[in-house]
Fold:
Amino acid sequence: MDNSTRDKLVRCFALVFPKLTEQQIPNASADQMAEWDSIAQVNLLSVIGEEFGIDIDFEEFEGATSYEKLHTRLRQLTASA
Structure:
């Protein structure tokens, strides 16, 4: 994943979780953040879909509850695009 894609993902996290610093975002996960609830998950996926110009299948991303898991899934999607 190139830096511009990584930057986009960081921007998405910053919009949904404004209290996180840019350095904290790569370590963000739902099990470590009380504010990452089901509503935040839907908001994050919506923002990612908009930022990357992709249709998000929410079921496909159901287990993507960390920056790293989302990063991996986006890499898979952008590689096959």
